[in-house]
TrEMBL record:
NCBIfam families: rnfD. Its main location: membrane. It is found in: Cell inner membrane. The gene is rnfD. This is Ion-translocating oxidoreductase complex subunit D.
Amino acid sequence: MNLSTEAAPHFRTTNTTRKIMIDVLISLIPAVIASTWIFGFRALFIMLFSMVFAEMLDFSIVRFIRKQKDHIPDFSASVTGLLLGMNLSLAVNWWQIMLGVVIAIILAKQVFGGLGQNFFNPALVGRAFMLISFPTAMTTWYVPFYYQNPDIVTSASVLGIISEEGMSTVLQNYTYWDMFIGTIPGSIGEVSALALIIGFIYLVIKGRIKLMIPVSYIGTVLIFSSVFYMVDPTKFGTPLFHLLAGGLILGALFMATDMVTSPMTKMGQLVFGVGAGILTMIIRFFGSYPEGVSFSILIMNAFVPLIDDWLKPKIYGTTKGEIKHA
């Protein structure tokens, strides 16, 4: 029998990658249901198509290119595909979804060696590629329940409205309750903060989530937006608005907390969350693109090795100088 030794540390646990990924998929079910209710079965098709194709592609690469004949899917690719699908607009075509999945699974994951070796969140890499390659489709937002009212199909997102017309125009069209339950234009799976929070609570109960990252990320956004709101409330919007608008909840709770592409230590996670929060608001307030969640997380992903090296715990019995020269 051939035995392989993985990297340290070695300890016995009942947790497996498969169990963790299944829990993540379960936690996303409320958002999938809410998205289907709000945007119709086309939304469900996009999410499921992205998820299934991602799993098939990942399985094919590992089984036939990497020659791991005993490979059994761990559903990490399904999580990537589903999260990518939730970050898309209803206007994307099936072949655009396939290209996004190819970039996410091959370029962002398998090129680096597969699960656990990637530096960037694969779903966000796929989304960034699609946003750059297909900007029209990726920024065409369908209004909630458009399938019930064919006279009104597309509209600007709430972040687009505030950047062009100000906070007063946003509140003339949508309430905070609309933003909380998800009856606003936006990416398929990001609109319902309520559904995402329900799923997040499940992950917290199961012990699958790093609380420091979402708390520091969201807290930084609230502090940053509060300061600018006091400067000009008509232009920058309320802190609650920036909490509920766009992909902040989805990004902070499910994307930034990715175990592979986030720091290992609590202090590192704090730095990661604060950095992502600051970058998100800088892009929202001063960038040409009204949303900054995806790019902020990807930028902070690039800093994770440095953060881990900078904030690694001191080995008992050594000095700081000895650690630097180790």
